[in-house]
């Protein structure tokens, strides 16, 4: 739908209102959204969103533009802001309710529109054009600009960020120097000792890496095992193991060794490049997102700050950014890609001629039909399943790549996020603690899985529970570890809004979530004993945080959602897109979730940010050459 901007108002119909200030709420993407409407007797004086739970950065364009458009139009026939459809519709719904309370003819107001002014078709020529403004796109554009190339980045929605901004935003990178300063988690030594029994003959291209890792572990075990261990080789082996899967046809799927090696070897370097070169504010906090398997998630001071810094860097280094500009076609000269044709918000065409094109459009997790069409891993995608993805993750880059006869790989491997909100389908806001702290129980109050396992293992286990839902249990001591950095005041606000359950005893918490109290209490008692022992004989959890023992206690209801699509365009180590013959397509690069072949059949939590930043940087540097 057209983005608001450069608009003219159709002939207005006269409306009469009961003057005053009116408030109304509607359901947004993540929860209730409240709008305040101020009216005089014959005019909408102001409209403002006064409270919401929408994702910062992603929903901002709608929150800024829709209210002012209502006032400008003096009507409700406003198009949704590109990339913010659900938030836009929620604002309009709440405003409609407020106006109805004032005696307005809402249906008549919906007939008053803003129509976009016609724009002129334009052409530009640059060295590099980047399609997509998420993490891979801003990394690619920054990297190309760093090399002195002229760059244009086009993003189809109204803001930079995409799925990256909706993610947990932890970037996996083995950092032994930093990690060796941290106390080891319970169970780490036993986990590493088990690696020594791995059969190298079963690891194919990864055998030499495993051999090196065993040497590293033996050296570690001779020293101070009270400190955290990590290495690039351990990151590589965990990435390989977590992604080695068998699809429904019996075919084995795993990550390409060279791509995985580059991902793991270059991640820490790229993290510091974002800080030192692009100017992103980095955090020294490490985290372990769900399914990360180890404590190596590097973080940033703020999600929005990453994109603000990148935008500033790109524009200061001979780069341009066009928002609400959708790439619809590649320009081809024989088999070579020489640019893109885009459609702008006003309907005009923008033709960009370039030496090289980088596709960084993300995956297709918000395209339910495409997910079901390609799925070859899950026996069935549950009917009505929600997605953690932003609306723009619809597979556009894959369709563009196919115009150049690109090869696809791993398209059937779709990841479900186990810890999504059962209410909204989004990443569960309430208890974003590191995964070593996780304790999950089903509706019967019983544990059912190793909470530190891979995401597909967790999702499969969750879907087999009653109604496919479960509860994440935590105690007061875990609040300071929240990865969303929520304060106690914010946690209490989540309780008030019904996002979290909170109780002074486990019995009372069980009553709130509707499970037998004796089961929940027994599950917690047993789990706490496993934390002490560093061993879980029931489900094999091998890394632990703290026990659940300090009131008040918390719970949040969760259910798997479509999260990540592992398949996409086939690339080589230079981030060049390959055709069916395995040859690089001249002028075409790709990075991020639009590509396949890195994560195999299941992605390690925290590896997506590493992927998009590492290969975005590689694509940008090579395209600039």
How do you describe this structure in short?
The chain is of the alpha+beta class.
Descriptive notes:
Pfam families: FAD_binding_2, FAD_oxidored, FMN_bind. Residues 28-102 form the FMN-binding domain. GO terms for molecular function: FMN binding; steroid dehydrogenase activity, acting on the CH-CH group of donors. The protein is an alpha+beta fold. It has three domains: 7-116, Sufe protein. Chain: A, CATH 3.90.1010.20; 122-170 and 297-414 and 564-624, FAD/NAD(P)-binding domain (3-Layer(bba) Sandwich); 419-559, Alpha-Beta Complex (Flavocytochrome C3, Chain A, domain 1), CATH 3.90.700. Helix content is 32%, strand content 21%. It is built from 18 helices and 27 strands. Strands 6, 7, 13, 14, 15, 16, 25 and 26 form an eight-stranded mixed sheet that branches. A hairpin with a 5-residue loop joins strand 25 (576-578) and strand 26. The longest helix has 20 residues, at 257-276. The chain is globular and about 75 Å long. The chain starts with 6 loop residues before the first strand and ends with a helix. Mean pLDDT is 93; it is low at 1-14.
């Amino acid at each position: 739908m057209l983005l608001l901007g450069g608009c003219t108002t159709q002939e207005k119909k006269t409306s009469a209102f009961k003057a005053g200030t009116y408030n109304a709420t509607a359901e947004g993407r993540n929860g209730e959204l409240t709008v305040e409407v101020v009216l005089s007797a014959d005019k909408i004086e102001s409209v403002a969103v006064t409270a919401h739970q929408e994702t910062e950065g992603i929903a901002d364009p709608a929150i800024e533009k829709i209210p002012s458009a209502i006032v400008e139009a003096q009507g409700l026939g406003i198009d949704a802001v590109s990339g913010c459809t659900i938030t836009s519709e929620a604002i309009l719904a709440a405003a409609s309710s407020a106006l109805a309370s004032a005696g307005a003819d809402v249906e008549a107001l919906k007939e008053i529109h803003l129509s976009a002014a016609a724009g002129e078709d334009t052409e530009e020529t640059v060295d590099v054009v980047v399609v997509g403004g998420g993490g891979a796109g801003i990394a690619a554009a920054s990297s190309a600009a760093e090399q002195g190339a002229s760059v244009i980045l086009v993003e189809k929605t109204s803001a930079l960020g995409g799925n990256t901004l909706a993610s947990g935003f932890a970037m996996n990178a083995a950092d032994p120097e930093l990690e060796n300063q941290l106390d080891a988690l319970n169970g780490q030594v036993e986990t590493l000792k088990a690696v020594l029994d791995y059969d190298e003959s079963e690891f194919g291209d990864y055998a030499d890496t495993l051999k090196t890792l065993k040497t590293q572990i033996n050296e570690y075990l001779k020293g101070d095992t009270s400190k955290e261990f990590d290495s690039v080789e351990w990151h590589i082996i965990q990435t390989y193991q977590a992604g080695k899967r068998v699809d429904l046809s019996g075919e084995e799927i795993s990550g390409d060794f060279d791509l995985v090696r580059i991902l793991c070897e270059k991640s820490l370097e790229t993290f510091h490049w974002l800080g030192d070169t692009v100017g992103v504010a980095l955090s020294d906090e490490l985290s372990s997102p769900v399914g990360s398997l180890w404590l190596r998630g590097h973080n940033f001071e703020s999600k929005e700050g990453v994109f603000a810094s990148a935008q500033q860097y790109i524009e200061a280094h001979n780069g341009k950014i066009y928002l609400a500009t959708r790439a619809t076609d590649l320009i081809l000269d024989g088999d070579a890609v020489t640019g893109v044709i885009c459609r702008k918000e006003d309907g005009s065409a923008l033709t960009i001629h370039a030496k090289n094109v980088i596709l960084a459009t993300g995956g297709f997790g918000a395209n339910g039909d495409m997910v079901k069409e390609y799925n070859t891993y899950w026996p069935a995608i549950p009917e009505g399943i929600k997605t953690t993805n932003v609306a723009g993750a619809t597979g556009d880059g894959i369709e563009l790549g196919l115009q150049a006869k690109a090869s696809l790989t791993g398209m059937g491997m779709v990841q479900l996020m186990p810890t999504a909100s059962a209410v909204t389908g989004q990443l569960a806001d309430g208890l974003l603690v590191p995964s070593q702290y996780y304790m999950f129980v089903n509706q019967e109050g019983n544990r059912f899985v190793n909470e530190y396992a891979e995401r597909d293992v967790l999702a499969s286990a969750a879907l087999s529970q009653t109604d496919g839902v479960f509860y994440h249990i935590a105690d007061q001591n875990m609040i300071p570890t929240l990865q969303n950095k929520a304060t106690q005041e914010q946690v209490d606000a989540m309780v008030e809004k019904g996002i979290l359950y909170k109780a002074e005893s486990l019995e009372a918490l069980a009553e709130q979530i509707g499970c037998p109290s004796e089961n929940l209490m027994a599950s917690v008692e047993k789990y706490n004993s496993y934390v002490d022992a560093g061993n879980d004989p029931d489900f094999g959890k091998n890394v632990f945080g703290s026990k659940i023992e300090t009131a008040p206690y918390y719970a949040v209801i969760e259910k798997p959602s479509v999260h990540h699509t592992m398949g996409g365009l086939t690339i080589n180590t230079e981030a060049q897109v390959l055709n069916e013959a395995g040859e690089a397509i001249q002028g075409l690069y790709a990075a991020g979730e639009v590509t396949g072949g890195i994560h195999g059949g299941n992605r390690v939590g925290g590896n997506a940010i590493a992927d998009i930043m590492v290969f975005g940087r590689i694509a940008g540097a090579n395209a600039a050459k």
